[in-house]
Amino acid sequence: MTGKTIGIMGAMPQEIDGVTALLNNPVRRVIGMRSYTSGTINGINTVVVFSRWGKVAAAATAATLIHVFNVDEIIFTGVAGAIDHSLNVGDIVIAKRLYQHDMDARPLMQQFEVPLLGKTFFECDDSKLNKIREAISPLIIDGILKDRIGADVLAQFGISTPNLHIGDIASGDQFFANNEQKATLQAALPTILCVEMEGAAVAQVCFEHKVAFTIIRTISDAADEQSHIDFPRFIEEVSSKYSVCIIKQLYNTN
Ligand code: ADE
Q1: Tell me: the pLDDT tens digits for 105-155?
Q2: Whose CA is nearest to atom 8 of ligand 1?
Q3: Ligand 1 atom with minimal separation from the 11 CA
Q4: Ligand 1: distance of its center to the CA of 223 in Å?
Q5: How many domains does the chain have?
Q6: What is the CA(179)–ligand 1 centre distance, in A?
Q7: Which residues of 25-61 are buried (b: 16+ CB within 10 A; e: fewer)?
Q8: Is the residue at 254 inside a domain?
Q9: For residue 27, what is the domain's CATH number?
Q10: Model's pTM, two decimal places?
């Protein structure tokens, strides 16, 4: 047993239920409409919670993990819509920089700048990113995802060999469901790989409390006119299994 405590968050119950099931000696506590389950995974103290959707929900949950459960680190696993055309459904993205795409206090400050922090993004350091890449790569290189999920199930979503990316993620209180939204985001923030609704809020809270964070997203849809159809199917059938595989890799429990 190590002394550190890790918080694991997800924005969909389907994703978080499988991770909660990995906990040894689970103890549940309800705070502020969230159910926090504490236990151990591979001897490491861990608290798992379904955050709900959006930046406020995610920030409140991250703050509770830090203040009530004294976590030293937060890992967020979940899904995202692809923004960069090189990404496909089933790819995994590890966040390098996280932007709040709906933060806009112009003309008081530049677009995306978080007031009083003077930052337009929150960043994960390279040594941490390399460790995470090393831990997760076997899911793809060694075919672990295919074995666990089934090549036939993946094929239904057009996934053959997923790719692993490290890059920029944008978060905001919007579900992207058309190409116009995508184009607007791409014009303003050309390096963005994918879009979701929580990561940069968790990153801000962690930054403010000097807590390490890792945001890992699986691409569930192309953030276009089809996304509201692809997204729920992907959550039910695939992404819950991705989250469990990712956490097992990070905890080295395979
Ligand atoms: N999470 C998964 N797909 C998304 C989308 N299209 N927009 C915002 N968040 C998402």
Answers
A1: 999 999 999 999 999 999 999 999 999 999 999 999 999 999 999 999 999
A2: 175
A3: 1
A4: 6
A5: 1
A6: 13
A7: eeeeeeeeebebbbbbbeebbbbbbbbbbbbebbbbb
A8: no
A9: 3.40.50.1580
A10: 0.96
